[in-house]
Design a protein that fits this description.
Helix content is 53%, strand content 14%. It contains 17 helices and nine strands.
């Protein structure tokens, strides 16, 4: 702790100074006090319409209940000004060159608990109704509802270390009169208030969401995910069609015919019934077997004035059996099952593509959520810095009024306040942009005010590169799809090679016809058919294309494998680097806080100046922003590492069903 030097014998103690009390000095003091009181009364009467509690900066009246667009920093300043006016009553308010006109604010607007219960009170929130539609429950002040194998969160102290900072006090200043003593007491009361109790810029009618809630909302609402699942309906049907290749096809037929003719005085009636069925099946070896049966029944009745005729009905059936087996082109189980194998491999690739879509969207949602969290924390940091700068300005103004500091020394503090206001506006703009970016990913109502909840812990376990490489080869969707592409190219090349062969088919036919009153007829035939098409260059073109595709697929697989190893190594390096940056940023922030505290103690005893305090305050704000950015970057590096390895879905216990 810094100890002030003892006063020398030549320099008297300020507490022991004596002022000669003469009639001339007394007359001057009374004249100064009376003129000051007169001017204060005139100014108070002239500014009375503008000092109304319900007046805005432009002098327009507002309703007490309208608080949606109120700046919390201005609210704090206005409350301080109003309380000062009430406490001092007849005394003039503390000077504040940056003070705006007082703004009406309902007392309930300063209670953060009202914001947390807003979602339960509001029935017109479209986003909340949409969330409830999918069965989501609002987790107020709760953490992850989705179990994770590894927690990626902040330390618990991050929620307070950005909101608490040493504020300057001037306990060693001796007041010269009762008025300065009262101002000093009010000022010290204000400086003891913790900025953490101030309303946040992000406080308002919003929904508090954790990173787990963001993942759930992204899975339920994102349109890209919905389209991917809709595409899966068609993709599964494609597989069903190919797997039905060797299933027999059965086609039944039935036909009924009635006929009535009248010629002169005679009439004739006839009727017929045809019943048939056809069964065809493709054999795994490439052959085709078809069986057909058809049964008929006919009846004829003639009737005239001379005689009647009735044939009593006729029955018949026709049996047909055909078999066709390729012996060269199209022969073999492997060739004929190639289309099924390709379809199954494509189905696996489609599932991997769906997983990749889910991983990318979840990763984007998490990164956008952390950007919002970083923007919110930056707003808090800038707000605290602005509060400190404003309080420093007020303290300096008290010193100027007491005659302890020259009036020109106020300009650095005023410049610092203006700079902090600009930084706060920029931070609020970045926060709104991050919120809209997150809403775009979640595909929810764009007017939803999302509030990012602060996580609880920050993991510090460095990952193992060797295990991650093997894990990436097992889980990374891009690598697995490249491996499937090689297998698919092999089957495509097999089919292309088969198409280059000559056609040699074995054909066999059996037919049997039997009708009433007619001898039965049986027909059996067998033969070979040999053919070859010349002049068609597309066959050779498909073969060359398939052969090149296989070679390219193998090269792509090797390239993806090497790239994946490099990416995993780079991600691990980045994670370790970001972890070191977090440790260094925390150390830098702690040193900045100590340095500012020491400089404030030195200022109490006149061993420092306002410019140094302002510079150290700026350094502390930058150190806090750097620490926040380092922690967010570290968490994002872990998230990107999970994305590269392909374990994002496993980390969030998300399972993609193949059926």
């Amino acid at each position: 702790m810094y100890q002030p030097p003892h006063p020398t014998s030549n320099e008297p103690d300020p507490k022991q100074r004596s002022f000669p009390f003469t009639p001339d000095r007394m007359f001057r003091i009374l004249t100064l006090v009376s003129s000051t009181v007169g001017w204060v009364c005139i100014l108070a009467f002239a500014l009375k319409p503008f000092l109304t509690v319900k007046a805005t900066a432009k002098g327009k009246l507002v309703e007490p209940a309208t608080s949606a667009k109120i700046n919390p920093v201005q609210v704090k300043n206005n409350q301080r000004l109003i309380s000062s006016q009430i406490s001092t009553q007849n005394n003039p308010p503390l000077p504040n060159v940056h003070q705006k006109q007082p703004i009406a604010l309902p007392a309930s607007a300063l209670q953060p608990s009202n914001y947390q219960n807003f979602a339960l009170k509001t029935g017109k929130n479209n986003s909340l109704s949409q969330i409830k539609k999918f069965g989501w429950k609002k987790p107020i002040n709760t953490l992850a509802s989705v179990n994770r194998s590894q927690s990626l969160n902040f330390p618990a102290k991050i929620s307070t270390q950005f909101q608490q900072s040493p504020l300057p006090t001037f306990s060693s200043i001796s007041p010269t009169n009762n008025l300065e003593s009262k101002k000093r007491a009010d000022l010290q009361t204000e400086t003891k208030q913790e900025p953490a109790q101030q309303p946040s810029v992000t406080d308002g009618q919003g929904i508090l969401l954790t990173v787990s809630d963001i993942v759930i909302l992204a899975l339920q609402n994102n349109r890209d995910i919905k389209n991917a699942y809709l595409e899966r309906i068609v993709q599964r049907q494609d597989l069903v069609v190919e797997e039905d290749k060797f299933v027999p096809n059965f086609t039944p037929t039935i036909s009924i015919a009635l006929d009535r003719q009248r010629v002169g005085a005679g009439t004739s009636k006839s009727g017929g019934l045809d019943v048939g069925a056809t069964v065809s099946v493709t054999l795994p070896a490439g052959g085709n077997l078809s069986f057909g049966w058809n049964g008929t029944g006919r009846a004829l009745t003639a009737n005239n004035f001379d005689n009647d005729f009735n044939d009593g009905g006729r029955l018949g059936q026709n049996l047909q059996l055909n078999f066709n087996q390729p012996l060269l082109r199209g022969f073999g189980v492997e060739v004929n099952r190639a289309s099924i194998d390709i379809a199954r491999l494509n189905e696996q690739a489609n599932i991997l593509f769906l997983k990749a879509t889910l991983i990318d969207i979840i990763t984007d949602a998490i990164l956008a959520y952390r950007s919002l969290l970083q923007a919110q924390e930056r707003v808090k940091i800038e707000r605290v810095s602005l509060e400190i700068a404003q309080q420093q300005l007020e303290n300096l103004q008290v010193l100027i009024n007491a005659g302890r500091v020259a009036p020109v020394d106020i300009f650095p503090s005023e410049t610092n306040v203006a700079s902090r206001q600009v930084s706060l506006l920029a931070a609020e703009n970045d926060r709104d942009g991050a919120r809209l970016a997150l809403i775009q990913i979640l595909d929810i109502e764009r007017n939803t005010n999302i509030l990012a909840a602060e996580p609880s812990s920050l993991p510090a376990t460095p990952p193992d590169v060797k295990n991650l490489n093997q894990l990436a080869f097992t889980n990374n969707p891009s690598f697995l799809r490249s491996a499937l592409a090689v297998d698919i190219s092999k089957f495509v090349l097999l089919v292309a090679e088969n198409d280059r062969k000559w056609n040699l088919d074995f054909n066999a036919t059996y037919g049997n016809v039997a009708n009433t009153g007619v001898d039965k007829t049986t027909d059996v035939r067998a033969g070979l058919t040999f053919s070859r098409e010349f002049g068609d260059l597309t066959v050779e073109q498909r073969y060359q294309r398939s052969r090149v595709n296989r070679l390219q697929a193998e090269n792509n697989l090797n390239d993806v494998r090497e790239s994946l190893e490099i990416q995993v190594t780079d991600r691990v390096r980045d994670v370790n680097l970001k972890l070191k940056q977090v440790e260094l940023a925390q150390r830098a922030r702690e040193l900045s806080e100590k340095q500012l505290s020491i400089e404030q103690e030195k200022l109490k005893f006149g061993r420092s100046n306002i410019i140094n305090i302002v510079n150290f305050q700026n350094d502390l704000a930058q150190a806090r922003n750097a620490e926040l950015a380092a922690k967010i970057d570290y968490l994002n590096a872990l998230t990107l590492l999970e994305q590269t390895v392909g374990i994002t879905l496993d980390a969030w216990n998300i399972t993609v069903e193949s059926k």
